[in-house]
């Protein structure tokens, strides 16, 4: 039997290993909703709203490699745009499926709901397509060819794709022969041009061999293209040591013998790492560093571009030299082979590292003392166990977590570049569904949590078992850090957080509140012993969120008052 347009699209996306569809049903998207409901390899996840669905798909794509979010025309798709723009920024292939009015309605010029009443049915496509690297309107005639093109481009760029399904066309059988097996985008890795590749390998091998103080800075590009294991093999073969920026934290275990610490400009951890990186005579940038404010200690770093060799996804830059049509996977594999057969072996691991990463935090605070950051984060370090996936929402908690060293085997996800507060709770749901065998630990501030808290109910509904830790300081802490003291707009309505799981229908969750060090230790012990999901509110003094030093705030506000504007 020939599949319909929508069924065929779902088949091809399921071939990528996607097993869930996040979304909110709507009448224009009923053909998609109905097809998902009966699809043997896909499960519908009923998100609380479209923004949460996009955030959850973001988390899912980080761990599964790709994700699907489904919305309805106009009101639904526009509500998801913030989350999809985040996936664009963070390089995540999220496939956005949108049901649209039927072609019969459009051609008759009928005015429908979810429109501006102006008979312009293309208006929202232009907006939504801007949050993707590729888009298509699927029809029976083009579905086979267009799906391969869209999947290929989304995987090649590791960014979202936008697919629209007119209601009537979505249910029609496709023309042409259905393609089976792995999509072209999975099979075709866009091999390098051999001459360019050899030139890059020669240059890198020579530069590394002649460097006396080399350092490697890997990026999340390695995660996005499934190259973390290849990177570790390169480290083993080369003997080079590496540091990460906040955006790339815990790419490998932070107990790895080649790990140096967190490079974050003038806010590096340990502090001595800044000079190690900035005075290196060779910096191998693997993936393309994102030199944004929160990834550079508010631009407090100073990297000499002439000392950097940057390996991007499909091109390489070394000073003024640019090499095109070279795949980062081919460069890593080629370098690894060369070092494995080289008679000169480098060693910057272990005791030979130019700087040692920060030690684990000491336990502070007496049992009867109120909880604060100084007592919470060391105990969180102890609480984490190998194979945990730690998520941090955007806010002061991310600043704190970036500065601490994670235990062996713990990986971490955050949204450092896009930085949308509230991302963490739905993203934790997506991560938990993508990797049910792992324990997901979310740390979120109360301000971020209040934006997307409904997804706790979806966690209970889907049966995932995360550990959700809400740091309650009663205000938008990150905004308080960069504004003057006392602004009422940073204050939050007080919630009884520990009651939220039960109120949202979660069964068999451990739930509690900690306001003292003793209560915190008891709660973490109880969660460790609990076989299931857990939700912990930890009280943090609002006084911690005092404004940063005046000179730091001045640097931050350069984004709103650029120098060029002052000199015009």
Can you put this structure into words, describing what you see?
The chain has 568 residues and is of the alpha/beta class. The protein folds into three domains: 5-171, Thiamin diphosphate (ThDP)-binding fold, Pyr/PP domains (Rossmann fold), CATH 3.40.50.970; 194-341, 3-Layer(aba) Sandwich (Rossmann fold), CATH 3.40.50.1220; 373-550, Rossmann fold (3-Layer(aba) Sandwich). The protein contains 25 helices and 19 strands. Strands 2-1-3-4-6-5 form a six-stranded parallel beta sheet, with helices on both faces. Helix 17 (396-402) links the parallel strand 14 (389-392) and strand 15 (411-413). Helix 1 runs parallel beside helix 8 (143-157), helix 11 (194-210) packs across helix 15 and helix 18 (424-434) runs parallel beside helix 20. It is globular, with a radius of gyration of 25 Å. The relative contact order is 0.10.
Quick one: how many beta strands?
19
- Biggest sheet character: 6 strands, parallel
Round the mean pLDDT to the nearest integer and report it: 92
| pLDDT < 50 runs, ≥5 residues | 562-568
Count of domain modules: 3
Structural class: alpha/beta
What's the CATH superfamily of the largest domain, by name?
Thiamin diphosphate (ThDP)-binding fold, Pyr/PP domains
What proportion of the residues is helical, as a percent range? 25-40%
Distance between the termini: 68 Å
The main sheet orders its strands as 2-1-3-4-6-5
What is the level-2 CATH architecture name of the largest domain?
A: 3-Layer(aba) Sandwich
**General form:** globular
CATH topology of the largest domain: Rossmann fold
């Amino acid at each position: 039997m020939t599949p319909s347009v929508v069924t065929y699209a779902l088949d091809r996306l399921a071939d990528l290993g996607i097993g869930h569809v996040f979304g909110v049903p709507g009448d224009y998207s009923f053909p998609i909703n109905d097809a998902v409901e009966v699809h043997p390899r896909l499960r519908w996840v009923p998100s609380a709203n479209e923004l949460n669905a996009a955030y959850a798909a973001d988390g899912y794509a980080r761990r599964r490699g790709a994700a699907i979010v489904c919305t309805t025309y106009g009101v639904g798709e526009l509500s998801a745009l913030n989350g999809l723009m985040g996936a664009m920024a963070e390089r995540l292939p999220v496939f956005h499926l949108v049901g649209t009015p039927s072609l019969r309605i459009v051609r008759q010029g009928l005015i429908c709901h979810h429109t501006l009443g102006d008979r312009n049915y293309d208006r929202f496509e232009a907006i939504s397509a801007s949050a993707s690297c590729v888009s298509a309107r699927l029809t029976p005639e083009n579905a086979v060819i267009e799906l391969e093109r869209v999947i290929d481009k989304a995987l090649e760029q590791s960014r979202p794709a936008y697919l629209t399904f007119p209601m009537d066309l979505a249910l029609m059988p496709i023309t042409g022969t259905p393609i089976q097996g792995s999509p072209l985008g999975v099979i075709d890795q866009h091999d390098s041009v051999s001459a360019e590749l050899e030139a890059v390998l020669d240059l890198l091998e020579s530069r590394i061999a002649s460097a006396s103080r080399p350092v490697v800075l890997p990026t999340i590009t390695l995660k996005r293209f499934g190259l973390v294991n290849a990177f570790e093999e390169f480290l083993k073969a080369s003997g080079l040591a590496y540091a990460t920026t906040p955006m790339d934290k815990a790419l490998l275990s932070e107990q790895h013998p080649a790990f140096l610490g967190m490079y974050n400009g003038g806010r590096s951890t340990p502090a001595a790492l800044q000079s190690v990186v900035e005075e290196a005579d060779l910096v191998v940038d693997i993936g393309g560093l994102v030199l944004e404010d929160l990834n550079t200690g508010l631009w407090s770093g100073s990297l000499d571009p002439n000392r950097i060799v940057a390996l991007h996804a499909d091109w390489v830059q070394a000073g003024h030299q640019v090499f095109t049509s070279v795949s980062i996977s081919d460069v890593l594999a080629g370098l690894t082979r060369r070092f494995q057969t080289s008679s000169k072996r480098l060693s910057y691991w272990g005791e030979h590292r130019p700087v040692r990463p920060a030690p684990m935090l000491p336990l502070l605070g007496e049992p009867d003392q109120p909880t604060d950051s100084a007592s919470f984060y060391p105990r969180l370090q102890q609480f984490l166990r190998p194979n945990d996936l730690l998520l941090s929402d955007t806010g002061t908690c991310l600043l704190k977590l970036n500065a601490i060293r994670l235990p062996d085997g713990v990986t971490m996800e955050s949204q450092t570049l896009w930085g949308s507060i509230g991302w963490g709770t739905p993203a934790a749901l997506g991560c938990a569904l993508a990797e049910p065998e792992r324990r997901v630990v979310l740390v979120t501030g109360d301000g971020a949590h209040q934006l997307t808290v409904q997804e706790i109910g979806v966690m209970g509904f889907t049966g995932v078992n995360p550990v959700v830790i809400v740091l309650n300081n009663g205000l938008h802490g990150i905004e308080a850090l960069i504004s003057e003291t006392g602004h009422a707009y940073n204050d939050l309505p007080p919630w009884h957080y520990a009651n939220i799981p039960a109120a949202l229908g979660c069964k068999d969750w451990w739930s509690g509140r900690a306001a003292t060090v003793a209560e915190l230790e008891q709660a973490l012990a109880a969660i460790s012993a609990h076989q299931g999901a857990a939700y912990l509110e930890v009280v943090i003094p609002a006084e911690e969120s005092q404004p940063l030093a005046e000179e730091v705030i001045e640097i931050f506000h350069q984004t709103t008052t650029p120098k060029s504007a002052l000199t015009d």
